Amino acid sequence: MIRLNLRLRRMLILWWLLGIWVFLIITPPSYVATYPDLASRGPVVSSVQNNVGTQAMYGHLPSPGTIGQLSAWETGAWLCVLSSVMMVLLFSSLHRKPESSGLVEYVYASGRSGSSRFGAAIATGTIVSVLNGAVCAFILLAFRYLSIDEITVAGSIAFGVTITLTMLATMAITSILQSLWGRGTNFNRLGLLSVGAAFLIRMFADTSSSSWATHLNWVSPQGWRTVIAPFTEDSWLKALVLAIVCAALIGVAFTLDSRRPFDESLLHLRGSKRYRERKIRSLYSLNMVLHRGNLITWSIVIGLVLLIFLPLIDSLLPSLQDDAATMQAVEAFLPAGELQITFIVYVFQIASILLSIAVVLPVIGFIGQEREGLIDAVRSTGVRRWSPLWGCVQACLSTLTSCTIFAILCALLGLYLQPSTVEDGTSLMVLSGLSIAVHALFFLGIAIAVAGLAPRVIHLAWLPIIAASVVTLLGPLFSLTEQQMEFSPLTHSWANSDEAVWPLLTFAIIGVALGGVGLLGAQRRNLL
Q: CA-based Rg of the chain, rounded to a whole angstrom?
């Protein structure tokens, strides 16, 4: 069963882990290039330690601010979140989703029990967690012996252990929530909700002025990085305690899973068994029923990202303006322009990546439905060949519209909450929101074209989003010129005063044209 799980999810595991490891490989050398010694990074370390904005995003940066501590502080925060998201998607796809779709019946037909299947899913997640933590530790150890003396052996191992324990706890909590409230449409959302809640608990623990709040990091897997403190305390005793906590959580998850009925949860919300009759008048209505959870979830997530981080901008500015080296790094990595507007554009770029993922996901799911024969059932009703894909595209456009509206409204609220005044703030937020809508429309067009012309390689639709994100966010690190970075739609925003109208309009036209090509391809090709 474990080998089967690894084989079935090998691509998901491979691409997620490669992305995490590449991210870790890139960041320590960039710290060294910006701050080659402790003396040069002293001012920025002291300012960051008293900055609420950076504490909310990454936690407390310990003194004296070695390269190892910087890596565990900033890069570690990102890796813990990304690794947790990966674990939610992996575990759900191994355990509850096959049960909901009926595929697990084949496993039971082979004589396997439910407990052995759950144990195989847990074991697979554990193997991936240990592998991720071990490779992260190995990468840091390689830097230690190749070029960066400030990275210690004990700290590298503690960092890897932290990543592993965070993933194990996320897996166990996801399983517990799915056993209690899981149903066919919310498996991933329950797990991602737990990751978001853990991040908010960690944020409160690191920013609260109350002394007791720091103990909340023990409750949040995202806060375990602060508890173990790689490259500072390297607390093996605390790591052992957290490992015992993970084992206990897995035990609770096993108990709850063994007691729930097949493809059901232990707890039912009031009225959850009362299904009102739905009137499906069109393929658009059908797709909105299927994807409304995706629409609501991503609208809230994108809105919260902007609402949480935009009010923190003013607390970040003093630590940047007071240090020349930091300003030089910021000017290299962020869009050009006035610093306050620059950070607003940067936050919207992050939201744009999330929005692009939100609108491409239904198209990826559409091809999965085609493989399972569901689209064949839709086509048997007499609709045109391209109509099922067009219904999915309509749901994607509804998601794009909803997320854009939520983004603009939450950005305006965040603008109101921050203490300083942003010149032409309302128009800035509206233009930024419209810009991310164009970004997502371009990537949606690519996904539709792949779905219509080459559905067997639909996962290649993620590559443009990944490439554009790397070019926009990490382009200066790869010494890309400004002209080269302009090939990424994420680089362009109408919020920038010097931004012309035509680049984004060009990307929008290309996206619409590619979408039309994809629909034409769906009309002419056979089903998978």
A: 24
> Which pTM does this prediction carry?
0.80
Is there a contact between 134 and 156 (Cβ–Cβ < 8 Å)? no
Average pLDDT on 423-436 reads: 88
User: What sign results for the dihedral spanned by CA atoms 10, 13, 16, 22?
Assistant: negative
> What is the SS3 assignment for 355?
helix
Sequence-separated (6 or more) residues with CB below 8 Å from residue 60: 49, 73, 206, 226
Omega within 30 of 0 (cis) for the link into 64 = yes
Print burial letters for 497-528: b (CB count within 10 Å at least 16), e (below 16): eebeeebbeebbeebeebbeebbebbeeeeee
Burial 205-242 (b: 16+ CB within 10 A, else e): bbbeeeeeeeebbbebbbbbbbbbbbbbbbeeebbeeb
Task: Scan for tokens 């008293």, then name that residue.
Answer: 50
- State both tokens at 368: 């999965």
Going by C-alpha positions, the residue among 94, 98, 151 that lies closest to residue 126 is 94
Q: For residue 217, what are the contacts with CB-CB under 8 A and spacing of at least 6?
A: 201, 202, 205, 206, 223, 224, 226, 227
The string of pLDDT tens digits covering residues 464-521 is 998 898 888 777 666 677 788 888 999 998 887 677 889 999 999 999 999 999 999 9
pLDDT tens digits, residue range 311-359? 776 666 655 555 555 555 555 444 444 667 777 888 899 899 999 999 9
Contacts of 240-248 with C-beta under 8 Å, sequence gap 24+, read 242/165, 242/169, 243/165, 245/169, 246/165, 246/168, 246/169, 246/172
Residue 304 amino acid letter = L
Per DSSP, 212 falls in state G
The letter for the amino acid at 516 is: G
